[in-house]
Amino acid sequence: LNPLFQAMESEISAAFDSGRPEDILSKAFRLTVTREDIRTLKPQGWLNDKIINFYMSLLVERSKKEGYPAVYAFNTFFYSKLSSTSHKAVKKWTKDVDIFEHDVILVPVHLTIHWTLLVIDLREKTIKYLDSLGQKGDSICKTVLKYLEEESKEKRNIELTASEWTLHSMGTEEIPQQNNGSDCGVFVCKFADFISRDKPIIFTSEHMPYFRRKMVWEIIHQQLL
Fold first, then answer.
1. Domain definitions of the chain by residue range
2. Is the CATH number of domain 12-220 3.40.50.720?
3. Which of 37, 102, 131, 141 is catalytic?
4. 119-126: long-range contacts at Cβ-Cβ below 8 A with a sequence spacing of 24 or more?
5. pLDDT tens-digit profile of 164-213?
6. Is 141 noted as a catalytic residue in this protein?
7. Mind listing the pLDDT tens digit for each residue in 19-70?
8. Which residue is catalytic, options 87, 114, 168, 207?
9. pTM of the full predicted structure?
10. Which member of 37, 184, 189, 193 is catalytic?
């Protein structure tokens, strides 16, 4: 093991094991991540909203660099609010941003005890649903397309033609699947990571223990490796 890797490993272990749960380990994007939050990245841990929102913010930050698609990410609470109310209830969420100026929009979706990801590609006019348990999300895609139609009309005064859009729940043969009951949040983060670089999704469930540790370092240092 090279010294740099050893230093990273000891830092990751310390983040998990030493100190109090309420210790603040990272602060950025108007989010505060405590040791208790970081510990959800331990093996078999269920990732919480703070970890997923922080990681999505890191992806958005990276997308500002040259050579990356322009990425916007909604907060983890966005979809549950939209699906239980209407566009009107979430209208103010984008008051300072035109989401249509981006290439890719990431929508993390929390289904009671399971995380999934919805991806809007404005270049291709596609809405894809990625679920590491292989469930279909056709109704989720439709809800978000309806949101896009209303958002476009409200913010840009442009009618979005729904028939031009392709909605697709990705099948188990298209994307990797989790082999336990706890890795869905990590899958969501890594689906988003690969998509926000326009890269094919080539990881598997075997990579999860490594991804968990890597994410600890990235969140603490506010920097993607």
1. 12-220
2. no
3. 131
4. 119/191, 119/192, 119/195, 120/144, 120/148, 123/69, 124/166, 125/164, 125/165, 125/166, 126/165, 126/166, 126/167, 126/168
5. 999 999 999 999 999 999 999 999 999 999 999 999 999 999 999 999 99
6. no
7. 899 999 999 999 999 999 999 999 999 999 999 999 999 999 999 998 999 9
8. 114
9. 0.93
10. 184
